[in-house]
Every structure is written in C-alpha cells, then in structure tokens.
Amino acid sequence: MNALDLSARMKRTVRAVAAADAFALPMLGMGPEQIRRDLGDGDLVRRLCKAPPGAVGSAFPPGAVSDVFAAGYLLLRGFLSDGGHITAARAGRALLRLKTDAAFRPYFDDFLDPVTREGLERLDGSYVSTRFDLVPCDGRRINCSAAARAWVAGLLNPGDPEAAIRDAVTLSMPTHPNAIAISGAAVSAALTAASFLPGFDCGRLYELALKAARDGYELGLSAAGMPPVGAKLPQRIELAVNLALRYRRDPEKLLQELNDVVGFGAYASEAVPSAVGLVIAAGGRAGEAVRLAANAGNCACCTAVIAAAACAASSPVDEALEEHFEKVRAAAPFDWEPLWAGLTAFAELVEGGRDVFTL
C-alpha cells in the first residue's frame, strides 16, 4: 500500500465517521418504529434530516455532530501532533479540551456522557468522591463511549489489529478504566485497523471481533485492576451476527430484532455487538451499515460511528456519506486542513517503515 492510497483511505474513514455521527444525530434517543413514523414517512430514513421537536438533537441544524465525533477529532489531532503515538496522557489532554476549549464546550454541555464527564473531572481534580467509589467492582463505566472513540486507535494502526487493540486500552484508560468498556473499544479499534487489510471480508471481521473482545477484556482487566460487573461481549456478538444473517434482507425486522434481543443502548455490550451485526448485514458496505445503525436509534451516534469506521476504508466511496460530510463541513467548527495534512504526513511515515505497522 503506497502512502497516497493509505492517506486517501484514512481520510475517507474520517469523513465517513463524521458523516455517520451527523446522519445519526437526529435519531439519537428514538426507537426504530418512532424513527420510521416521525422521520421516514413509514420507511427507513435515507437522507440527512432535522431532528423532530423535543428530540436530543432538535436544537442543531442538519450536519451538526455530537460529542462522539468531536472527541475522536480532538484525539486524532492530538496524537498526530506526536507522530501518531497514542499515550494516556495525550488522550487525557485531548479529551479535556471538550471542557476547557470554548469551541468544543457545547459538546460537553449538550451531549457528553456521565462516564466521560467523571473521567474528565478526575483528570482536572474537580471530582467529588461518592460512596460508590468504595464498591470493590465496577459496573458504572461499562458504556460504549470509549468504543465510539477507539476508531482513532485503529486508524493510527492501519493493517495491524493487534497494535490497535493495545492502543485502544491506552486510549480508554483516562475515562473508562473498565474491562467491559475496553473490550468494546478493542473491537472497534481492531475492526477499523483491519479494514485496511487486503481482502478483509465479513467472515474475517466476525472472527476478529470475537478475538478482539476477548483480548481487550483481558488487557482491560489487567490495566484497570478492578473486576467489572455487566454482560461480556463475545456471546452477544455471536447473537447479533446470527440475527444479522437471518434478517439481512428485511431491514425493519433486523432492526427490531436487534433492538429487542441485543439492544442499541449505551452499554458497550449492546452498541458494539449490534454495530458488528449491522456491518455484516450490510455486507461490509459503509453507507448501508451507517443507514441501518442510524435508523436503529437509541445510542445511534455511537453505533453508527463504530459501524462506519469498521468498513469505510475497505468500502467503495459512498456518495451519500460524502454529501453528508459536506454538510458537516458547513455546520461543525472543525479545522479540516491541518487534519488532512497530518494524515498525509502520517501515511508517509508509515510507508517509510514505521515498525508499528504491518501493511
């Protein structure tokens, strides 16, 4: 893989992730049937739209993104400034900008999940201890926010899922020192990294998702030092993929079954397995995976971002996602040119033989 091709695929992944967040935002917090009724005229939503009154994203124009992409953008810019090296300290500094930088503060105020908020409070010293801190196990930090940011670890380890898993642990620890959350992050990172491999298909994606979930759990358990409480991911991935294969030709039935059986909620054990199932149901096509994930509602932004990152680099360019991204460019306060330049330089570094990668 030459640097020009790698750079193009990395940028395509970033555009797809941003577009996925924006496309899903109007459907955040809604259910599949409600989305079809209120936004899709009885069908799946297929174009960027405005959230209905009272919905989570109703105050934002079409093309706006949530904290999901904003956090990933800040992490990616921070790591690229150091040659793509992922450290917990740099991850913490990047995420703190959600709280301290006026341009990004709206994402903190309007969207940021309570687990990440607590993590940032611990980082800046404003956290106030509660009695739950004395519980000798951790069921509070098992949400999917770390997984929804872990595509950055995969992007910066293109073609090397094992390195991506290790970096997902590092990236997650400042806010999500929990083996279940890290297991979900490992899946997202590994699939994103593997999407740069030649001939990567849905069968290999499924096998890698199971391996990443198990490896990420063990690494996360060692790093966090406290046992988690909650459902583990591997068997739920198997369940989600079985449903995806059974109902892949009936999107409405697929979304309802996944909603009822696995879930699209904020737990890592819901959003991540369902995202894997939707990628497989979509045949690894990023545009279709994003459309399914967004129309699932609930924690739609996280599910859609994980799904987009898992297959954007290996998918053909999706015209609808590219159109959505142009709306993001107009609506979101991000500085794109330095990001593109950083990715170009990083791709040249990788092509020049940085030994972290095996392309």
Would you identify the CATH architecture?
Orthogonal Bundle
Please state the overall shape, judged from the principal axes of the Cα atoms.
Answer: globular
The count of DSSP E runs of length 2 or more, i.e. the number of strands, is 0
Using only C-alpha atoms, the radius of gyration works out to 18 Å
Describe the structure.
There is one protein chain. The chain has 359 residues and is mostly helical. It has helices at 3-24, 32-38, 67-80, 88-100, 105-110, 114-124, 145-149, 151-155, 161-172, 179-194, 202-224, 234-247, 251-261, 268-281, 286-296, 300-311, 319-331, 336-351. Helix 12 packs parallel to helix 14 (268-281). The longest helix is centred in the middle third of the chain and has 23 residues, at 202-224. Belongs to the ADP-ribosylglycohydrolase family.
Q: Which key phrases capture this entry?
A:
Ribosyl_crysJ1_sf; mainly alpha; disordered C terminus; 359 residues; globular; ADP-ribosylglycohydrolase; Ribosyl_crysJ1; hydrolase; ADP-ribosylglycohydrolase fold
Give the gist of this structure:
With 359 residues, this protein is mainly α. The protein has helices spanning 3-24, 32-38, 67-80, 88-100, 105-110, 114-124, 145-149, 151-155, 161-172, 179-194, 202-224, 234-247, 251-261, 268-281, 286-296, 300-311, 319-331, 336-351.
Write the SSE topology.
Blueprint lengths: L2 H22 L7 H7 L28 H14 L7 H13 L4 H6 L3 H11 L20 H5 L1 H5 L5 H12 L6 H16 L7 H23 L9 H14 L3 H11 L6 H14 L4 H11 L3 H12 L7 H13 L4 H16 L8
Helix pairs in contact: 1-15, 1-16, 1-17, 1-18, 3-4, 9-10, 9-11, 10-11, 10-14, 10-16, 11-12, 12-13, 12-14, 13-15, 14-15, 14-16, 15-16
Pfam family, one: ADP_ribosyl_GH
InterPro entries: ADP-ribosylglycohydrolase, Ribosyl_crysJ1, Ribosyl_crysJ1_sf
GO molecular function, one term: hydrolase activity
